[in-house]
């Protein structure tokens, strides 16, 4: 199992290259003992960056291993890994914004069921519960802005089943293996771009400004 350094916000590290195999599409699949690279998953794109100066093009989870794809081979042994910091921070802002929207709508008894934190495609989907309260885009935007201004600090913990959970301040925790901002103010300008209710399903789409990218 690859040690997931990214869960501790590490973006640069000395790593051990365990395996480097050519793939059918001409790339190389690289396995590390530990990695600062977040793999694609949980609605979040993968980190990019470099290992010993070689560009990391994609990172994916395969079974218990995190596989890094590159166009060039990397020598086995110790290497230096560096995550693209701008990309990491931007995706962390998008992911945390999605959590915030989920938190706010849960207070009105809407159950989040599906998330997508990809740039230009960010959305959180909810299912109506027995006591769900109907809201609107303007109300949701206002409440989110208030939370962002509050600068609630991110906290991580393990639940009883051993899964990592992420929460901000006193807000409820969500099980999550993604990357996040240190406090909600780092989200910057959050814009709720659409609020669509169809029968008992609600889809909230959103974006964050490029000012901190």
Automatic annotation (TrEMBL):
Organism from which the protein derives: Acinetobacter johnsonii
Protein name: Alanyl-tRNA synthetase
Gene Ontology biological process terms from the UniProt entry: tRNA aminoacylation
Domain of life: Bacteria
SUPFAM superfamilies listed in its UniProt record: ThrRS/AlaRS common domain, Translation proteins
Required cofactor(s): Zn(2+)
Domain Threonyl/alanyl tRNA synthetase SAD per the UniProt entry, residue ranges: 167-198
Gene3D superfamilies for the chain: 2.40.30.130, Threonyl-trna Synthetase, Chain A, domain 2 (3.30.980.10)
Coiled coil spans: none
Keywords: Aminoacyl-tRNA synthetase, Ligase, Metal-binding, Zinc
GO molecular-function term, one example from the UniProt record: aminoacyl-tRNA ligase activity
InterPro entries xref list: Alanyl-tRNA_Editing_Enzymes (IPR051335), Thr/Ala-tRNA-synth_IIc_edit (IPR018163), Transl_B-barrel_sf (IPR009000), tRNA_SAD (IPR012947)
